[in-house]
Amino acid sequence: MYETILYKLQDGVLTLAFHRPDVLNAYNQQMGDELADALQRADTDDAVRTVVLTGTGRAFCVGQDLADRADLGAGTDLSASVRERYNPLIVRLQMMRKPIIAAVNGVAAGAGMSFALACDLRIASDRAKFTLAFSKIGLVPDSGASYFLPRLVGTGKAMELALTGEVISAQEAQAIGMVNRVVAAEELESVVEELATRLAKGPTFALGLTKRSIYHGSESDLFSALETEAKYQGLAGRSEDFHEGVQAFFAKRTPEFRGR
Ligand code: T3D
């Protein structure tokens, strides 16, 4: 059904993989269209309870396919491309009512790094590396990098990575708080599968609100955060999963959440 991404749904976990391995999964128009379609389906499909974003071959994603930019002369306006092909994807990842894990299997560059930053959790292979490559080619950070990176690593480090375009290892990325965990390359798939399956068995409705709450809390004052928590708790408290969670607690058994 798709050509530039892989789509695999198993046990509530949807794995989406950038799949243009010959060009390090460089992002082109078709990939953008296919990813947008897949993410929209994922959001509305109740069978999908966690999403994993990864890449095939030795890269996660190296951002814009520069082969499609090689013939553009000075004076080209890229703002429409960013608004139409990149920004909606970032919004879709952020607004997804299910947890999204970036399984960063290899190099993540430019908007490819931004895609990883826009996910909720990042597990990296010890072979992964990261670069905000934009400054190396005379562009500026896009696809949410200017928003997510300072929130994850602080303004000073974000500035350094953005201005220099320095390539950093997975271990450095973990040390500065950019990735949650680094694992041996051969263990990435099983570690991510274990985490994704655990999340997929969770109270999906509440996890979706949890996502929103944490993102809201990171950019609001205390009073607004408290009010949002109260509002979301009102919604979560009405869910079937809350009822099941409390029943299971007193029965001393594992809850069987249905995600609603
Ligand atoms: O245009 C718009 O609409 C605006 C939006 C822009 C969003 C963006 O993402 S702009 C940023 C685009 N990405 C980059 O600038 C990254 C460029 N690539 C690199 O810096 C390096 O290739 C990497 C650090 C990612 C990996 O380095 P390394 O040493 O592991 O591999 P390599 O040898 O540099 O690359 C391997 C091949 O992949 C090579 O092709 P070849 O020589 O084997 O035929 C290289 O040209 C190709 N490749 C790497 N990145 C891209 C690419 N081909 C097309 N587009 C790429 N982005």
Describe the structure.
Helix 1 packs parallel to helix 2, helix 2 (79-95) runs parallel beside helix 3 (111-118) and helix 4 (145-153) crosses helix 5 (155-164). This protein has a six-stranded mixed beta sheet, with helices on both faces. A four-stranded mixed beta sheet has the order 4-6-8-9. The chain folds into two domains: 5-200, 2-enoyl-CoA Hydratase, Chain A, domain 1, CATH 3.90.226; 204-251, Lyase 2-enoyl-coa Hydratase, Chain  A, domain 2. It is α/β, with parallel strands linked by helices and 260 residues long. It is built from ten helices and ten strands. The chain is 47% helix and 16% strand. The mean pLDDT is 97. It has helices at 29-44, 79-95, 111-118, 145-153, 155-164, 170-175, 188-200, 204-217, 222-237, 240-251; strands spanning 5-10, 13-18, 50-55, 59-61, 100-104, 107-109, 121-125, 129-131, 168-169, 181-183. It binds ligand T3D. Ligand T3D binds at residues 23-24, 26, 62-67, 69, 78, 81-82, 107, 109-111, 131, 133-134, 137, 139, 142, 167. Residues 23-24, 26, 62-67, 69, 78, 81-82, 107, 109-111, 131, 133-134, 137, 139, 142, 167 line the site of ligand T3D.
